[in-house]
Amino acid sequence: xxxxTAAVARETAETDIEVTLAVDxxxxxxxxxxxxxxxxxxxxxxxHGLFDLTVRCDGDTHIDDHHTxxxxxxxxxxxxxxxLGDKRGIRRYADRRVPLDEAVAGVxxxxxxxxxxxxxxxxxQDAVGEMASDMARHxxxxxxxxxxxxxxxxxxxxxxxxxxxxxxxxxxxxxLDDATRLDERRSDTxxxxxxx
Length: 196
What we know:
Blueprint (H helix, E strand, L loop, with lengths): L4 E7 L3 E8 L6 E4 L3 H14 L2 E8 L6 H19 L8 E8 L2 E8 L5 E5 L6 E2 L2 E2 L1 H14 L2 E8 L3 H20 L16
Parallel strand pairs: 3-4, 7-10
Antiparallel strand pairs: 1-2, 2-4, 5-6, 6-10, 8-9
Protein name: Imidazoleglycerol-phosphate dehydratase
GO molecular function, one term: imidazoleglycerol-phosphate dehydratase activity
Keywords: Amino-acid biosynthesis, Cytoplasm, Histidine biosynthesis, Lyase
């Protein structure tokens, strides 16, 4: 198996971010973004996707969580794109639904090289801890646009935003793990065009 890893640094006037990713990992993570609930979500993302992930972000959290969550989504998307390279041998598609108590979230992904994003549903509360609930949607959008994913996401049901957001992150992790796995039957890029 090739070494499907990446390291991305992103520095703007609003954030200073470093991300490392191993697609074929054990689910180990070290995360420090300054937004506690976001750290919890990224740790769950790594654990349930079996990605080894480190994230360090020094962001303008004295303003709010937006630039931090968005910037990490961008950097992580770039890391996936770099780690997957020409996407040779991957399964490419995946569809996952994940429950967390009363909440259910779903993700359908195509590692297509063509960024597209859809979100359906709503969150029951405006924020969880220091993170605005809608930033979960924006994180997924930023990830999709920068990883080159066609990504459809949905919060199907729930009454607790913590559960809804966590189900969404876990569904995203499981779908990405499925879609980026290597298929031993395939040696080429999974596209009739020959390129993704």
